Amino acid sequence: MPLNRTQVRAILDTMAEMFPDAHCELTHSNPFELTIAVLLSAQCTDETVNKVTATLFQKYKKPEDYLAVPLEELEQDIRRIGLFRNKAKNIQALCAILLDKHGGEVPHEHEQLVELPGVGRKTANVVVSNAFGVPAIAVDTHVERVSKRLGLAGANDSVLEVEKKLMKIVPREEWTQTHHRLIFFGRYHCKAQTPKCEICPLVEVCREGKKRMKTGSNRKPIPKGPKRETKRETKREIQAKKG
């Protein structure tokens, strides 16, 4: 049964209380750096990306810089990132298009962003919302998992269907912040393998959470009481006393 408005509002408000300062954790100082960072983050943690970009963004300041080195050199600079060869190729192709069609600047329009190599719908949503202040909901693995667990989306919905359902039930002015809060909720609380169901304020509206708590698979172990001073005598001990 789909959630009603009151339930959706309660979920959004609860997440706002839990993670009031949720934000994009990819380190960047301009739209171009953010675009590169999000491109690198596919199938990779933000923590790893930030370690790589700490030196990458010192070496490469603008699109021309990425095109001034051989592809192999760029590959070596990002080799700690998963799929680094393909991503290096996309970065150089993206930079070439930025220079050729957009004056070296990252376009503001979603339609133009998704035309860039390595930039899908999720990346474009992250860029327009965080770099240009356009409300958007980017659906990554955390957003998808949490939305499905809480019933904000259907269990079999595609990523696009999850995005559309969230856009429908979340007020537009809250899209970007909700995106960040869903990520924080999924990254630090409702984790894939070890969700904190036993302390979750949303467990009553979470189908998976209620199932986990019912089976006890996610409950904390009951602490054992103090050991008794006396112990049960074995048959052998009893026989020994009898002589």
Number of discrete helical segments:
13
Q: How much helical structure, as a percent, in the residues?
A: 55-70%
Rounded to an integer in angstroms, the radius of gyration calculated over CA atoms is 25 Å
Provide the residue-averaged pLDDT. 89
Give the biggest beta sheet: none
- Structural class based on helices, strands and sheet pairing: mainly alpha
- Taking pLDDT < 50 over at least 5 consecutive residues as the criterion, the unreliable ranges are 218-234
Walk me through what this model shows.
The chain is built from 13 helices and no strands. The longest helix has 18 residues, at 84-101. It is elongated, with a radius of gyration of 25 Å. It has helices at 5-18, 31-40, 46-59, 63-67, 71-77, 84-101, 110-113, 121-132, 141-149, 159-169, 175-188, 207-215, 235-242. With 243 residues, the protein is mostly helical. Helix 9 crosses helix 11.
In short:
Helix content is 56%, strand content 0%.
Which characteristics define this entry?
243 residues; single chain; 56% helix; mainly alpha
What's the structural blueprint in terms of helices and strands?
Blueprint: H1 5-18, H2 31-40, H3 46-59, H4 63-67, H5 71-77, H6 84-101, H7 110-113, H8 121-132, H9 141-149, H10 159-169, H11 175-188, H12 207-215, H13 235-242
